[in-house]
């Protein structure tokens, strides 16, 4: 057994995590061991620490970058010293129709999540990347393309691919009118990706506070969702709305801003009470959702980001400041993603 160090949740009403020793398995033939250098702090980590799924003793973290430090006997795709990225899933059955379609994230036999899951072979709980070392199958690790800064690229592995997949599935491109609701970790990457895909992008935010940021990220404007007049004036304006709001909120006004056959894709957790269906009927509109990304989409997203120079806007903190990061994330005080620097776990 290998051991490493990481951060584990204590109680569901606390953002304080404890530094603990974590066991990692000895490498199987198709495993690699990765020294985690950076890990993004996703709002899902906060939901889960606060007990969304009733868990305890969670080591969160599913937006990681680092370097390969050891390889199993059968590894051909990675060598020691290579840059690598890890996302939200680390295994799947590999045989169901979803896995065969390259949508391992929707594996009918449940994908193994990077944390809070169960290893398919030995049944042990998976512990996430708020830690110095991670062990996973090479199939689920990604080569980090040259030119992407490893700290700023870490959030691509959840926030990035979670917005990339629905944008691609919706066929967003040069003639699309896209809105991104909630300018946070997911939202700010969605603005960058959608505008790089050629769409005209509007940010839907609670106030004008992020207006300048929205424009610098590539949006053409910001609409204030608490201003009923602005919402009414935008009736029918968008083909596709990507909703990344992290708290319960009304969906009906968003659907009202969709045009004919428009789609609202709700990514935030927990999923809130349903909208008024008549608002969907008034224009043949659709509501959908999505959950992170499959292997193929993740590779494609990383390549697109490398080509277009897209990474997250990050604030890097030593990993022992995780409580500060979670408190500030809970208060909406982040522009736009906290990334933990794991090197302090060596001392
Ligand atoms: P985040 O950085 O905290 O951003 C969330 C944004 O939502 C905020 O910046 C804010 O935008 C808006 N917001 C927050 N509280 C609000 C409220 N009470 N009313 C209205 N708007 C509010 O979070 P994130 O990491 O981007 O994650 C966003 C959500 O997506 C979370 O629920 C997360 O769990 C979920 N998620 C889903 C997937 C998936 O695959 N489906 C993947 C990752 C995360 P403004 O300041 O602009 O209003
Ligand atoms: Zn996440």
UniProtKB/TrEMBL annotation:
One of its GO terms (molecular function) is oxidoreductase activity. It catalyses: a primary alcohol + NADP(+) = an aldehyde + NADPH + H(+). Its cofactor is Zn(2+). The lineage of its organism: Bacteria, Bacillati, Actinomycetota, Actinomycetes, Pseudonocardiales. CDD domains: CAD1. This is alcohol dehydrogenase (NADP(+)). It is an enzyme of class 1 (oxidoreductase). Keywords: Metal-binding, Oxidoreductase, Zinc. PROSITE patterns: ADH_ZINC. Belongs to the zinc-containing alcohol dehydrogenase family. Residues 12-340 form the Enoyl reductase (ER) domain. Its EC number is 1.1.1.2. It holds the Pfam family ADH_zinc_N. SMART domains: PKS_ER. Gene3D superfamilies: Medium-chain alcohol dehydrogenases, catalytic domain, NAD(P)-binding Rossmann-like Domain. InterPro entries: ADH-like_C, ADH-like_N, ADH_Zn_CS, CAD-like, ER, GroES-like_sf, NAD(P)-bd_dom_sf.
């Amino acid at each position: 057994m290998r051991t490493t160090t990481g951060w584990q949740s204590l109680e569901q009403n606390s953002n304080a995590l404890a530094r603990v020793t974590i066991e990692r398995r000895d490498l199987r033939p198709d495993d690699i061991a990765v020294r985690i250098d950076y890990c993004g702090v996703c709002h899902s980590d906060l939901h889960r620490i606060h007990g969304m799924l009733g868990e305890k003793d969670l080591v969160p973290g599913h937006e990681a970058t680092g370097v390969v430090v050891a390889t199993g006997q059968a590894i051909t795709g990675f060598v020691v010293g290579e840059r690598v990225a890890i996302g939200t899933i680390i295994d799947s059955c590999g045989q169901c129709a979803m896995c065969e379609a390259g949508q391992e994230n929707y594996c009918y036999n449940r994908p193994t999540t990077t944390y809070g899951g169960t290893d398919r072979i030995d049944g042990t709980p998976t512990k996430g990347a708020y830690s110095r070392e991670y062990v996973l199958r090479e199939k689920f690790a990604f080569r980090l393309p040259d030119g992407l800064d490893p700290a700023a690229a870490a959030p691509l592995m959840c926030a990035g691919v979670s917005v990339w997949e629905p944008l691609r599935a919706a066929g967003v491109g040069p003639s699309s009118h896209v809105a991104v609701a909630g300018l946070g970790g997911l939202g700010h990457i969605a603005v960058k990706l959608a505008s790089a895909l050629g769409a005209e992008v509007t940010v839907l935010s609670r106030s004008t506070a992020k207006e300048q940021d929205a424009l610098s990220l590539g949006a053409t404007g910001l609409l204030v969702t608490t201003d009923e007049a602005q919402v009414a004036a935008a009736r029918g304006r968008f083909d596709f709305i990507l909703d990344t709001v992290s708290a319960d909120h009304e969906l009906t006004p968003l659907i009202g801003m969709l045009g004919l056959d428009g789609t609202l894709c709700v990514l935030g957790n927990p999923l809130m009470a349903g909208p008024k269906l008549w608002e969907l009927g008034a224009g043949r509109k659709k509501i959908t959702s999505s959950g992170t990304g499959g292997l193929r989409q993740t590779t494609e997203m990383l390549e697109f980001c490398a080509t277009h120079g897209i990474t997250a806007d990050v604030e890097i903190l030593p990993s022992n400041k995780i409580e500060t990061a979670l408190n500030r994330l809970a208060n909406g005080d982040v522009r736009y993603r906290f990334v933990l620097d794991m090197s302090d776990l060596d001392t």
